[in-house]
Amino acid sequence: MKGALLVAGTTSDAGKSVVTAGICRWLARQGVDVAPYKAQNMSLNSFVTPQGAEIGRAQAVQAAACGLEPHADMNPILLKPGSDRRSQVVVLGSPLTDVDAMEYGALKDRLRQVALESLDRLRAAHDVVICEGAGSPAEINLRRGDIANMGLARAAGLPVVVVGDIDRGGVFAALYGTVALLEPADQEMIAGFVVNKFRGAPELLAPGLDTLRELTGRPVYGVLPWLDGLWLDVEDSLALESRDRAAAGGPPYGRQSLRVAVVRLPRISNFTDLDALACEPGVVVRFVTGPGEIADADLVVIPGSRATVPDLRWMRERGIDRAIAETAAAGGPVLGVCGGYQMLARTITDLVESGEGTVPGLGLLPATVEFAAAKTLGTPVGEAYGHRVAAYEIHHGTVTPDDGAEPFLDGCRAGGVFGTTWHGALENDDFRRAFLTEAASLAGRDFTPAPGVSFAALRERRLDALGDLVEHHLDTAALTRLLECGPPSGLPMLPPGGTMGP
After folding, report:
1. Does residue 338 carry a catalytic annotation?
2. Which of 52, 87, 135, 269 has its Cα between 20 and 30 A from that of 236?
3. Residues 481 and 426 reside in one and the same domain
4. Does 126 qualify as catalytic in the annotation?
5. Residue of 338, 395, 396, 412 marked active site
6. Which InterPro entries does its entry note (predicted)?
């Protein structure tokens, strides 16, 4: 089998990443040499490859679904928003510049060539490449110069499967409208649809699926059922909305549970660091936005941020800083990761991200922070609690602990307040259990982590579950034909169709 296809979506968080990972795992289990690819990713959840390149976290997990090490070509362009108007542009794993939307437009021709060359290299090295789109192909305001959706599909001759999220409602209008808004040359690339996150009896969908095919001339390749807790390493903070709703509707904290409050910063990054905590039996993780939600927590976590100084100001405006200080004064525990670690220091000097100069930190750790123009990217290995810890780091802010400060991984601690720049440390099972044991003790909780929980094994089981969804609920024979033959010919065009150009 040789070929490639593009998984697009009607919206962000429609399930493109999940479906892409599922197809990758299904193909890999058939013995196919398959690789993932996303030309342009806008996400604050990123990962550092073994070669020291920064890519989207979702593509790293899709690589795991393929049985591959992640590589910069799998996500050649990564946009990391630092505000509502500006983003850092990471190209082939290294930061290039910070731009606004208009400035980014001037880079499009150069970046399109980079993206296509990465795809060419992947297709030369692997038999099949499963590409993931970005946002929606029907964002017609962004169509001219597009390098992630239909512009990519046309340039590389990729058949496109559009995923719609039925849990949001309006899935038939979204699928039909996505095709109808495209110009004819783009419509020719749309091969069919997948309905995602369905709860209920599939037969209830049959009339709608039949009508959608009559109206568009394109099949629905399958309906994927809703499965709770299926996905790890989500791409953006939209997915936190469903986590928040689930937590709000879930059971109250149990007496034997360890209650973890994670501050949901406006520019939260790498919140997937907390996935490993949430997978521990008896640990309840909630993302919070107010001081009252911290009061009954046993462990407070300040996660990473793409805007450390503005997010620190946001915490102060809401009184979250005082709630954290009260937790620390009572003995903790408080954990800061990367940007969260920087916030815990005495002072932060930032002429790079915010340009605000020197501002006071929370003052809960004996350390100072200075932002450097060069980004630190790495895959460090260390030791804590007598256990090996492998992690990765991505930051501009450099934290310098005072002489004599008690070390903690690469960072420091003061009593029950811990800080580290290392992402992914909690995925190390022995370290995670040791840290939670101390955190519970500091909080005065009767909690002992369950032995034998393997985060890596859990991720593998979930990737297998995604592969099972594809195998059992999608028309895999039709997907194979798309990979081998490309976009179907003779597809009908829907009115009105635009003329936005290649």
Report:
1. yes
2. 52
3. no
4. no
5. 338
6. Class_I_gatase-like, CobQ/CobB/MinD/ParA_Nub-bd_dom, CobQ_GATase1, CobQ_N, CobQ_synth, GATase_3, P-loop_NTPase
